[in-house]
Structures are given as C-alpha cells and as structure tokens.
Amino acid sequence: MMVIVGASEIELRRVRRLISAERVEVHGGRQFCFGTMRGRAVCLVRAGVGRKNAAAAARAICADLRPAMVIAAGAAGALDPALSCGSAVVVERVLGENSTELIACPPEWAGRALAALHASGMQAQAGSCCQTRTFIHRSSQKQALRAKTGAHIVDMESFAFAVEFRRAGMPFIDLRVVSDSARRDTADMKMLTGLWRRSGRPAVALHLCLRPRELARVLFFYRGMGAAAERIADALLAIVRASIEPVGTCGPADG
C-alpha cells in the first residue's frame, strides 16, 4: 500500500477524486481514507498546515500503518526564479527552519519518481526545499532565503515529514509543485488567516475590498493553488502507474 499525505484540502481535492474510497479510519484525530487509485491500494491523509501538523500526521502513519511507501505531496513557493507556477520538483534535500539542518530524501525513490514523471511527458526536476515556520509572501523574502540556503522551493511541512519518516525507516518521496513564483509578491495568507480566526469572514471581505491590490494577490494565489493541485494529481497518477513501490507489508499495524 502507498500512503499519500498532504497539508490542505485544496492541494488534495483533485487527488481525492481519483481515489475509489472504500473506508475511512481515524488515527491521531485525522481521517485516513483507504481505497484504490488505478488499481493500486492507497491511503490518503490530510495532515494540516505547518510543521507540527506534518510531524503528528507522519508519526500516526508510521505507528498505525505499515505502508510500503509514503509520498508527501503538495504546493510550494518558488525560491529559484527559473521555476514558474506549475513546475514539478522531486525533492532531493530538505532544510530545516534554521537553515543548518539538512536531510537527504531517499535517492533511489526520488530518482524513480523523477523518471516516472519524465516518462509520462511531464516536465519535472530534482531540487532542494527549505521549510519555514510561516508563509513567505514577499519576493524580497524569497530572494533572501534563496541567497541564504540555495534552495529551489519553500514550504512549511517537508522537513517535518522527512524527520519522522527517516526516524521510522520509512521509504518516502517528497513531491512539490510550484504555486507562486519567486519574482512577485503573493497574498499575505498568515495575516488573512489570523484576521479570519479573530473576526470572521466579513472582516476579511472588508479588508480585501478596501485593498484592491491585495484582493488581486489573493485571487492570483488561489489560481496558482488550483493549478498546482491539478499538477499534483497528474504527477501522482504518473508515479502510481509506474508502480514505484518497494516490496513490503501494508495495512493497519497489529495491536
């Protein structure tokens, strides 16, 4: 069995439609959706956004299941200005939030995933990913992070996933698709999410109505996320069709 884990529903919505769901279980407060994708047994897990949610979901996957393979899939911001929205990146190395900790993703499985994407006709590249605590929305911040780390992309979950899967000896692939470019500012989702939680949807609507430029950035952000979600689903289909999965047991752990 292969586990597919991602942070948010918008990233996984298209993937969910490709899975013939058979049952849902709850592990660690998260729904694990078991089913098949193109005849292959899979389990889809929505971890939640951020490092703490990613780490908790990874621990639940490792403790409660015996998957042969895990694919951490989701959107990322570009740090490399050569990457455009929709670019697929198979992550080879992930850097922690202090930019000094580095974990290499299993090279055999990263190589196989990249080969499967190329064989399907999808443009993809290998690269490195830097994890941050908060959403990076300014192009100047991305340029500074690129200069400091040399990473190609940035997200909020990859390092946390890698730490837990490496600790458990779990084969994994980290697949990211660019949702916003390095060259332009995007919506300040941290601020907007905080405003939503404090004051609700009307406050967010009023804030954006009074700031047309920020509204345009929000619309562009969600357009980029939607396009990334399509590419994520296409990439996962290519990997599943290529039967990239080590031999192993699967299913809920005993006891």
Overview of the molecule:
The longest helix has 30 residues, at 212-241. This protein has a single domain, classed as Nucleoside phosphorylase domain (Rossmann fold, 3-Layer(aba) Sandwich), CATH 3.40.50.1580. The protein contains eight helices and ten strands. Helix 2 runs parallel beside helix 5 (158-167), helix 3 packs across helix 8 and helix 6 packs across helix 7 (201-209). The relative contact order is 0.21. By secondary structure, the protein is α/β, with parallel strands linked by helices. Helices cover 42% and strands 27% of the residues. Residues 247-251 have low confidence and may be disordered. It has a five-stranded mixed barrel, surrounded by four helices.
Q: Which key phrases capture this entry?
A:
five-stranded mixed beta barrel; 27% strand; alpha/beta; 255 residues; Rossmann fold; 10 strands; globular
